Amino acid sequence: MKQNLKGVSETLLIPLWARAVEAEYPDPIIKDEKAAEIIEEIEYDFAKLDEEWPTQISVVVRTEILDNATKVFIKKHPDAIIINIGCGLDTRFSRLDNGRIHWYDLDLPEPIRIRRNFFDETDRYKMIARSAFDYSWMEDVTPSGSVLIISEGVLMYFTEAEVKDLMNKLVTAFPGAEMLLETTSPALVKQSQKQDLIKNQYSIDATLQWGVKRGRKGMEELNSRIEFIKEWHYFDHHRERWKSIRWLALIPPFKNRFGNRIVHIKFDSI
To answer: pLDDT of 40-50, one tens digit each?
Structure first.
């Protein structure tokens, strides 16, 4: 039976659509078969997204970057604890599970309610229906081993003060943990606030609020116990798929102004 998700924020459905569409390419960047299965069960006019190719490539590039970095972490720590903040309809656990990790998908009650139509909890896979800023969720996670925290498409919608407070709580609750997070640029934040880009493009009542020019400076300034490890810029990956943007991305000011990154950090264990 098809699920009617009318009225559900498109921030939940757009990444799912992007990954499902990618599976149809002859040489896909990622092959998310679970996303393709889920999209067949949802009543929604996905055709209206067909022209949103920059969003589609952005999602699959960030998915590949996060998948690869998570695989590296799991290889080093096969019994790891993974916490996915703002999971939406993400399918990463089903793709990367090694049979030993413990995975927590965290999101607001409505997205988690929707997830339960497509995913079942197990002794190693749990869903937590709470805001990331309701810090009581941390009590539901047992950090019995190495911890990796993932956050994509989430933190840029909150203020710097809110992000700072969350990072302070994470550093304290999970000392020694590593984190992979998506960041955007301050220029895109300003443009979003000025032109209401997200609402005009997707009819989503959301505005970018937080961005960083560089991953190292931006993250280490939030908390002295944060150590920058690495960052990956989307425009540096699969350049042939960015069409005309790939040439503009060769210009550093354009690349830094309009591109998103995945930033890898670690929390001091002191």
So the answer is: 988 888 888 88
Q: Which residues contact 250 (CB under 8 A, 6 or more apart)?
A: none
Q: Tokens in use for 110?
A: 């409505």
pTM: predicted TM-score of the whole model, two decimal places:
0.92
Residue 43 β-bridge partners: 4
Q: Are 158 and 209 in contact (CB under 8 A)?
A: yes
**Nearest C-alpha neighbor of 62 from the set 92, 106, 27:** 92
Total Cβ atoms within 10 A of residue 60: 25
Cα–Cα dist 101/125, whole Å: 9
208-220: pLDDT as tens digits: 889 888 888 889 9
Cα dihedral sign for 190, 195, 198, 204?
positive
The radius of gyration computed from the CA coordinates of the chain, to the nearest angstrom, equals 18
Pair 106, 84: CB distance under 8 Å: yes
Stretch 164-173: mean pLDDT, rounded?
96
Q: 3-267 has which CATH code?
A: 3.40.50.150
pLDDT category, 124, cuts 50, 70, 90? very high
CA distance 154 to 179: 14
